[in-house]
Amino acid sequence: MAFGLSLVEQINRARSDLRLGVPIVIRGPDGPALVMAAETATTERLDAVRLPGLVLVLTRHRAETLKARPYDGDVARILVPRDGGLGWLRAMADPADDLRHPMKGPFQSARDGSADLHRSAIGLVKTAQLLPAALVLGAPPPELTAGLGLTELPLEPLARELAGASIMAPVVNARLPMVASQAGRVHIFRPRDGGEEHYAIEIGQPDRAQPVLARLHSACFTGDVLGSLKCDCGPQLNAALAQMGAEGAGVLLYLNQEGRGIGLANKMRAYSLQDQGFDTVEANHRLGFEDDERDFRIGAGLLRQMGFSQVRLLTNNPRKVDMLNAHGLEVVERVALKVGETAQNARYLATKAAKSGHLL
Ligand SMILES: Nc1nc2c(ncn2[C@@H]2O[C@H](COP(=O)(O)OP(=O)(O)OP(=O)(O)O)[C@@H](O)[C@H]2O)c(=O)[nH]1
Ligand SMILES: [Zn+2]
Questions:
Q1: Residue nearest to atom 8 of ligand 1 (CA)
Q2: Any idea which fold 7-163 has?
């Protein structure tokens, strides 16, 4: 149908619905299921779906923190207790008060049937940059789904789309003289799937036949803009641009993957947990995220699209090297980028070295 909504359009609508607290429907092989994000649920809507079989889906990391068994590998399906109100739901999804109220169990889990639909529900909630926790009601009564105009998504195509790589379209580029180099040019790329725009800052006119000095920089509002001392992002951004300026050529991708892909609100939740004593990796896990949720295929795709095939990559993160090599870019050299160490970020950098394999 030329004029009807495509799957990608429906998925983006679903993402907005979840952020607003509006339920959506995912249709799997066993029929439709009603899905809501735990973070944006209201008492009224929770009461409406509080029926036998209602489950709260959490990721393995969040379930482990709560001492609930993740029977489905990477996700857990916890039956919502009869007296589980909005307070219970928020406390399950959000670790902010875990230390004050550690005992939330015992839990009963749903273990029958496939958890594929639940897994996609969590995937969708994550891409909406909400806490990774979703309410799922299988076989909902017709009055909760019919005639309400709820967004409906077919499970298999949804799962495929969530796992797929974004295809970027160039929107515009323009000259930008900068402190680091007068010969700067900013390129804007927009994904076809309605996700975040990403930027490439090209310095000089790098020869596409030679390895280019390149950096994949992930957005860090606190470090890049506010001069945070908790991380090294701001100094790394400036040092990378300065080195490209000094060499006369380079490309820096500014990827809008704030907080290693969890979004600024969730990163601030992680910072709040770090103030309770958890390190950067533990904080992500307590929230229910992997330590790094970034999709580095985006960076590889953008570099290829700009005509580069070989890079000298400014990074201390071996995962970035591996991911570029795996996705069609040859990293001929890793160029270390050691700047911006402070008393406040020493533990952060040590944790990245110990747990995430960063090179010191
Ligand atoms: N979730 C989370 N994200 C953080 C934290 N501190 C910084 N970040 C984010 O981490 C990302 C930093 O990424 P990069 O500068 O690419 O750093 P990297 O993966 O360590 O690799 P290199 O700097 O290339 O060595 C940015 O998106 C920051 O917003 C934190 O404590 N928690
Ligand atoms: Zn940072």
A1: 259
A2: DHBP synthase (3.90.870)
Residue nearest to atom 3 of ligand 1 (CA): 259
What tokens does 31 get? 């029929």
Q: What is the mean pLDDT of the chain?
A: 95
* CA of 48 relative to ligand 2 center, distance in Å: 41
Catalytic, 90? Answer no
- Write down the domain spans for the chain: 7-163, 168-257+294-356
Tell me: the pLDDT tens digits for 104-156?
788 999 999 999 999 999 999 999 999 999 999 999 999 999 899 999 999 99
Q: Does ligand 1 lie within 6 Å of residue 26's CB atom? A: no
ipTM of the complex: 0.97
d(CA 252, CA 201): 5
* pLDDT tens digits along 295-353: 999 999 999 999 999 999 999 999 999 999 999 999 999 999 988 788 888 888 888 78
- Does the beta carbon of 345 lie inside 6 Å of ligand 1? no
Is residue 359's pLDDT more than 80? Answer: no
In sequence order, what are the residues at sequence separation of 6 or more whose Cβ sits closer than 8 angstroms to the Cβ of residue 68? 58, 76, 78, 105, 107, 109
Is 231 annotated in some ligand binding site?
yes
Pair 233, 223: CB distance under 8 Å: yes
Cβ of 315 closer than 6 Å to ligand 1, yes or no, is yes
Q: Do β-strands 168-175 and 152-154 pair in parallel, antiparallel, or remain unpaired?
A: unpaired
CB 320 less than 6 A from any atom of ligand 1: yes
Tell me whether residue 207 is one of the annotated catalytic residues. Answer: no
Neighbours of ion ligand 2 (CB under 5 A): 220, 223, 231, 233
Which pTM does this prediction carry?
0.95
State how far Cα 342 lies from the chain centre. 27
Q: Which fold has domain 168-257+294-356?
A: Rossmann fold (3.40.50)
d(CA 57, CA 70): 10
